[in-house]
Specification:
Chain lengths: 360, 562
């Protein structure tokens, strides 16, 4: 299913897209790294991960082309088995692996997999962000590590079917441009943690069949359906939106609009749920803070009312007391009309574009 | 995010307008800041595509790299940028005032006052977003090790003069921006979201257009709707109406408009190079100029909205009165600026690629100290920030209900008056915890003696009852007058009362005073002094090796991108 098309059909098109400059640059760098039968790449793997092994003179680069993804995956498994027997360095350029995700197979294509002389396998990830003075952007390295961890999991599945099962190295090689040049440099990244996290998440995923079973009969996500029908169909699959979705999912803008319409506090961030306890909607929180609803013995409600009172006091007394002496003259209750009255004659705040008091 | 900030955000969702998070401006704004709105090419490590730069909001200078992969054009861009930025910095570096600094005399080892210069005003650089700060750092790193033809006539691809100097300044600004509360290099989105809470997540606040829409929606409409338009609205050609503040560009812009324009430029350049006679060359030069002008227009069309937005944001910030202690932090920025000016004048080499152990530890200690200072100063400057600290139990405000004169037990009895404060706050007070209040701008310390129950004299160090700790305000009508409800806290004032037996007038709180005490210190003490870099112990790598060797320039290859 193409989620980007679906999102456009829902009227909330995704903002994802790749600039052709970035695309060209990424491809050019990867081609450079893999040039000459991967000599440079194998040299980096040898230097960073396996300095004890014999230096790679000329690595084998088996042909992995086949018809269809299943064919390519089978060809990859075969090439891996054969490479283990040779006792030399082998580079698999864009192999295809399969991984079971929520009960349905997903095909994965790492940039490269290297087979060491001792028969162990290493995942290689090539990225075009620079490694400046030996360090790269932590967020991008983290994303690359998570990505590689999935490949490691998929490789382990292939390895488990072989006898004896070869070792899949838990340290991957991240290849990036060095400083501001186009020269490749590598860094070993330990992905043990990411691997176990991903594995746990995969094990816990609800199976696709279970989700499909829960859907009403006849639910269809075809983008050419009328918008209302399509929206209803998408609504039938539960989704919990959080701001992090914006950088990961094509449907994020749709989910955000629904989440905002519902008034869910997580629209502003996941941490709010932890702070606000059982109060899950904006209206609930605000009415609890104003004292019109909520149980005053609930610590969250009490803290909210205290926060509202302090906030009103600080905003309301700004012109009546010196900044360092917050007076309590305006009262402590957010709903107090005294606080609202003090707020009104403040032209300076209008020009600042703020709406002044929130009290009715 | 504290609960009080969360509440402000939810109020913003409810009202559709951003809500104030501060009542004063917590960052100094120069009268004449230099605004820089850069754009980069996607996929390259910060290869510049263009920029708007200048101090005059009506007349920004447009700098464009028509082919970002061409080293000469990039150098031309950086040289032009240096021509704008360095004179601005020099203007500020020239104006000095006399100041004093205590230094250790190398002969006697005593601390002595030394007369030094302090720049009267530091150059302030403003970029639209946090990614802009990263770009300034990156440009600084890429430029400061370059060699000019004068420094190294043999080296291939010499950089234009002044470019390495700009790199050193950019590095200094990028490094200073990591110090909490500093204002030398500001990202406007950071400063705006420090002062206003919007009804969107902090992630979405990174979008300058959306953030401004929440704070100051056009035509006084709903901020939420305006923010959504700023974020997503596209024109008939599929281009964002409000382009991203950069430095990254929108992929749709790259693919549909910029790529064809650059291609046209490349073709025109190849054609010009292949021209065989003067007339033909003239025609082709015309085409090249037209292609370049087209790219300039495209870059201007993407940067100008952001440029205007930055100045609008500055207007909004200027409408807030500056916090009294922001000036103190700005003075530290001026010291930092002056210090770098002196290092450049003294001919010191550019900042190293990696800090040595002592420098790194010093930087870390500075950031920690400045963080604590910033938190304390913001709270003292701004009742709204103080409200957050009061909610967290780190401060309390109330009315003085009783003052009893008492004296210390030392040989010379000094005044140690007992002050009772009635507060609705719930501070985390333990036995003999020190609290501070501001007295004429200086902190006066007091220590916690105990809680007092209404009418009773017996004091304990635990709060009198759970009802009062759950906070007044939980029932309507409580706290309506200053005399009822609340907790009575007894404090012993410890200092700032003069040397005599009787405290100086005005130095002891009086009955009826409204005071605010904090549990955190108002002024930060520096930590233990670290050794000089030359005395770095071997456990930390030892003294930096070969201190007199200047850092080597980066290796240059023909395919470099920056």
């Amino acid at each position: 299913m193409n989620k980007a098309v679906l999102a456009s059909a829902l009227g909330a098109p995704s903002a994802f897209g790749q600039s052709q400059f970035a695309f060209m640059r990424g491809n050019a760098f990867e081609a450079r790294v893999k040039a000459d039968g991967g000599a440079e790449l194998l040299r980096l793997v040898h230097e960073k991960l396996d300095p004890g092994a014999e230096p790679p003179a000329a690595g084998a680069v088996p042909d992995l082309t086949a018809v269809g993804p299943e064919g390519r995956a089978a060809r990859t498994a075969l090439a891996l088995r054969e490479a283990g027997a040779t006792g030399g360095w082998t580079l698999l350029d864009h192999p295809l692996l399969t991984l079971d995700v929520a009960g349905s197979p997903a095909f994965l294509e790492p940039d490269a997999v290297v087979v060491h002389p001792d028969g162990s396998w290493t995942v290689v990830e090539i990225k075009s962000f620079p490694m400046l003075d030996g360090s790269a952007d932590a967020a991008k390295v983290g994303a690359a590590a998570r990505q590689s961890a999935v490949y490691v999991l998929a490789l382990e599945r292939v390895a488990a079917r072989l006898d004896p099962a070869p070792e899949v190295r838990q340290t991957v090689l991240l290849v990036c441009p060095k400083d501001f040049s186009n020269l490749p440099t590598g860094s070993a990244v330990d992905v043990r943690k990411q691997r176990s996290v991903t594995r746990r998440q995969l094990d816990r995923l609800t199976r696709v069949e279970d989700i499909a079973d829960a859907l009403p009969e006849g639910t269809c996500f075809a983008p050419d359906l009328p918008a209302a029908e399509l929206t209803a169909a998408v609504e039938s699959v539960p989704a919990t939106y959080a701001p992090e979705c914006l950088s990961a999912c094509e449907l994020a803008f749709h989910c955000r609009a629904r989440s905002r319409a519902r008034g869910a506090v997580t629209t502003l961030g996941r941490s709010l749920r932890a702070e606000l306890g059982s109060l899950a909607s904006v209206d609930e929180v605000l009415s609890a803070a104003r004292g019109t609803s909520g149980d005053p013995t609930d610590p969250t409600v009490a803290a909210l009312r205290r926060a509202a009172a302090l906030r009103a006091e600080a905003l309301g007394t700004r012109t009546t007391a010196p900044a360092r002496d917050p007076a309590r003259g305006a009262g402590n209750c957010a709903t107090s009309h005294g606080a609202a009255a003090v707020n009104e004659p403040q032209p300076a705040r209008r020009t600042a574009g703020r709406s002044g008091t929130t009290c009715p | 995010m504290s609960l009080i900030t969360t509440l402000a955000r939810l109020e913003a969702v409810d009202t559709g307008r951003a809500q104030p998070l501060a009542t004063v401006r917590h960052r100094h704004l120069s009268d004449r800041p230099l605004v820089l709105v850069p754009l980069t090419t996607a996929g390259e490590a910060g290869a510049p595509l263009g920029a708007l730069v200048g101090t005059d909001r009506d007349e920004p200078r447009l700098l464009v790299v028509p082919q970002p992969r061409d080293r000469d054009l990039r150098f031309a861009f950086l040289a032009e940028l240096a021509d704008v930025v360095l004179p601005y910095i020099d203007d500020h570096a020239r104006e000095v005032e006399a100041a004093e600094r205590s230094e250790t005399d190398p002969e006697t080892g005593k601390r002595v006052k030394v007369e030094v210069e302090l720049c009267a005003e530091a150059a302030q650089l403003i970029v639209p977003s946090r990614a802009g700060i990263d770009l300034v750092r990156l440009l600084g790193r890429s430029m400061r090790f370059r060699r000019t033809a004068e420094q190294d006539p043999e080296a291939p691809h010499p950089a234009p003069p002044r470019v390495p100097l700009l790199g050193r300044w950019f590095t200094h600004y990028g490094e200073r921006a990591r110090v909490p509360g500093s204002s030398l290099l500001l990202a406007l989105t950071d400063v705006l979201s420090r002062h206003w809470a919007t009804g969107q997540s902090t992630l979405e606040d990174q979008h300058l257009g959306a953030l401004l829409a929440w704070i100051d929606p056009p035509d006084g409409g709903s901020g939420a709707e305006a923010a959504l338009r700023a974020e997503l609205l596209r024109d008939a050609e599929g281009q964002l109406v409000c382009p991203p503040a950069g430095p990254a560009t929108d992929p749709a812009f790259d693919n549909k408009l910029l790529a064809p324009a650059i291609e046209r430029y490349d073709r025109a350049r190849t054609a010009l190079a292949a021209a065989e006679d003067g007339v033909e060359a003239d025609d082709r030069l015309g085409e090249l100029t037209a292609a370049e002008r087209h790219i300039r227009e495209l870059v201007a069309s993407r940067t100008r909205p952001t440029w205007d937005a930055v100045w609008r944001g500055l207007d909004l910030l200027r409408a807030l009165p500056e916090g009294p202690r922001a000036a103190d932090r700005w003075t530290r920025d001026r010291w930092s600026f002056t210090g770098h000016r002196d290092r450049v004048l003294a001919g010191e080499p550019p900042q190293p690629r990696r800090d040595d152990a002592v420098t790194a530890a010093n930087k870390l200690a500075t950031r920690e100290r400045e963080q604590a200072r910033l938190e304390a100063q913001e709270a003292l400057d701004d009742p709204l920030v103080m409200a957050g600290r009061r909610l967290a139990g780190e401060a309390f405000a109330g009315e003085v209900t009783d003052v009893v004169m008492a004296y210390g037990e030392g040989k010379r009895p000094s005044p140690r008056p007992l002050v009772t404060v009635r507060t609705d706050d719930t501070p985390h007070l333990g036995e003999r915890v020190k609290v501070y209040r501001s007295l004429g701008g200086k902190p006066q310390a007091a220590e916690f003696v105990g809680y007092e129950e209404d009418g009773a004299t017996g004091a304990g160090t635990s709060p009198p009852g759970p009802e009062s700790t759950s906070g007044p305000g939980s029932g309507p009508g409580s706290g309506s007058g200053s005399g009822s409800g609340g907790t009575l806290v007894v404090l012993r004032v410890l200092d700032r009362m003069g040397r005599g037996r009787e405290p100086e007038p005005g130095s002891v709180p009086e009955k009826g005073d409204l005071l605010c005490f904090t549990l955190f210190e108002h002024e930060q003490r520096g930590g233990a002094k670290l050794p000089d870099p030359e005395d770095t112990p071997w456990t930390h790598g030892g003294p930096p090796g070969g201190t007199d060797t200047a850092p080597q320039p980066d290796a240059v290859t023909d395919e470099d991108i920056l």
